[in-house]
C-alpha cells in the first residue's frame, strides 16, 4: 500500500493530481525541468526534484531518473498524467519492475491499444464495431494494401499502426494515388515513431468525435461515465469539449457505453481510460482508438457525474474496489470546457510565449479553472501552450453556454495573447449553440470574421433561442426573433427575452 505519490508530469495536470492526493491524505513528490523550478506543481508538492534541462527528452521523458527519484524519496507509486510517459508500456513495465505501482493500466493493455492495428483486431473480436478497413494485426506490404483497397472503398485513410491522435494520417481519394501516398505515409511514420507500418480505413466524412470515459478496478468491475463531445478541434488539437454530447441520447449512450466497456475488457483494462468513437449522422458509431491514460478533458465528465476520476484512479491503484457501480453513475446537467491557450486566434493560432502579467480568472457559481500557471510565470516554447482549462457547469446546455460566456468575459490575462476571443466567437456561433457541428467545423466552416455575417441569419437566431430555452416552445422563440430589430446583437436579444419571460 502506498501513501506517497510521485507525479511524473508538469502544469495543470500535475497540480490536479497533487490536489487529489492531498485530499486523500497522501504526500506528493514533484519532478521538474530547469525552467519549471518555480512552477505551481513544484510549489504545491511536499517535495520536488529537478530532472534536467527544458527539452522533454532531457527531463519529463527521463523515465530512469524518475524511477530513481521515486525510490530515493520513498514514493511507492507514480502517476504519469497525460502526454510524456503516460502511454509508454516500457515505462509502465519499468515502474513495476522497480517494485513501484504505476497509477494506470497494465503495460500489456497500453501495448495492445498502442498498436492501432492490434487494437482494431482485438476490439473487433470482442464484437465492437470498427471503421471498415484492413483486418488482422500482421504487417501488410504495399501490394497487399493495394489489393485490399478497392474492397475498403475510396476515399480512404492510411493510418500508422504506431500513430494515434491523428498523427501520420493520409487521405487517399483514388486508387492511382495509393502507391505514392503509401510511400509517403510509411516514411513519415518511420521518422515519427520508428515504425513504418500502416493500415487502411474507409474515410468517414461529417462524423463527430465522441469518446466514452471508462473506469475499471482489480475486482473485474468495469463501468463507463458517459460520453464527451470532442469534435471542436483544430489540427487534432482539441479546443473545447462538453459532456454530454448534443448528438447522443439515452439510448445511444447505453449502446456506446456497453461497447466501450467491451473494448476495455478485451485488453483486461485496469484504471481510467477512454474509448474514442466516430459517430455519423445516422447514429452509427465506430471504434477509433483507446487512450490508455487520464485525459485533458476529464473535468467535464467529473462535473456531470460528480465522480472524482483522479481519486478513483488512486483508489484503484491501491487495489481497492471502485466506489461506484454502473447503476450509481448518473449524469446531471451539462459541462463545457474551453482550453485557454497562449496563442493568437487572429494569427493562425500562432503560439504566444512570454511572461504572464496580471491575470484574474473567473469565479462564481458553476465555474472551475484548472491551471498550472500564475502571474509572473513564463510560458516557454518547450511545452504545450495550455494556460488553463475553464470548465462551466449548468443545469442545461443553455445555462452552461451562458455561464461560459459570462466566465470568458470576466477572464483577464495580460502578457501573452490567448484564444479567449476564439471561444467567445464559438459561444456566439449558431452552429455551436444548435449543437450542429462535426470534426471539420473549426477548420472548414468557422472563421473569426465570417461569424459576423452568420449572425444576421434569422433562422440561426431562432435556433439559438430554441436551444437555450429548450423547455419553452420553439415557436414562441422564433416569434420573438421575427419581431426583432435587425441591428440588435443576439445577446441583447437573449437579455430582453429573459426580462420578458422569466
Ligand atoms: C478517422 C476519420 C475519418 N475516417 N478515421 C483523427 C484522430 C484519430 N484518433 C483518428 N482521426 C480520424 N480518424 C476514419 N476512418 C477522421 C479523423 C479525424 C478526427 C477524429 C477525431 C477528432 C478530430 C478529427 C479531425 C480530423 C480527422
What class would the helix/strand composition place it in?
alpha+beta
Please count the beta strands (DSSP E, at least 2 residues each): 22
Strand order of the largest sheet: 13-12-9-10-11-14-21-19
Bound molecules: ligand MV4
* Average predicted local confidence, pLDDT: 91
End-to-end C-alpha gap: 55 Å
Profile the largest sheet. Answer: 8 strands, antiparallel
Give the low-pLDDT segments.
471-487
Which word captures the global form?
Answer: globular
- Proportion of β residues? 15-25%
Helix content: 25-40%
Number of helices: 19
What do you see in this structure?
The chain has 502 residues and is of the alpha+beta class. 37% of the residues lie in helices and 23% in strands. It has 19 helices and 22 strands. The strands form 6 sheets. Strands 13-12-9-10-11-14-21-19 form an 8-stranded antiparallel beta sheet, with helices on both faces. A 5-stranded parallel beta sheet has the order 3-2-1-4-5. It has a 3-stranded antiparallel beta sheet with strand order 7-6-8. It is globular, with a radius of gyration of 23 Å. The structure holds ligand MV4. Ligand MV4 binds at residues 131, 157, 165-166, 201-204, 209, 233, 236, 276, 278, 288-289, 439.
What are the salient characteristics of this protein?
five-stranded parallel β-sheet, binds ligand MV4, 22 strands, eight-stranded antiparallel β-sheet, globular, alpha+beta
List the helices and strands and how they pair.
Layout (H helix, E strand, L loop, with lengths): L3 E4 L3 H13 L3 E7 L6 H5 L2 E6 L10 H11 L3 E3 L9 H9 L3 E2 L4 H8 L1 H10 L16 H11 L3 E5 L9 E3 L5 H16 L4 E5 L5 E9 L5 E13 L2 E7 L6 H17 L4 E9 L5 E7 L6 H8 L3 H9 L16 E8 L1 E2 L5 E2 L2 E2 L3 E2 L6 E5 L6 E2 L6 E9 L2 H14 L1 E2 L6 H9 L1 H5 L6 H5 L4 H5 L3 H11 L5 H9 L7 H12 L1
Parallel strand pairs: 1-2, 1-4, 2-3, 4-5
Antiparallel strand pairs: 6-7, 6-8, 9-10, 9-12, 10-11, 11-14, 12-13, 14-21, 15-16, 17-20, 18-22, 19-21
Helix pairs in contact: 4-5, 6-9, 12-13, 17-18
Bound molecules: ligand MV4.
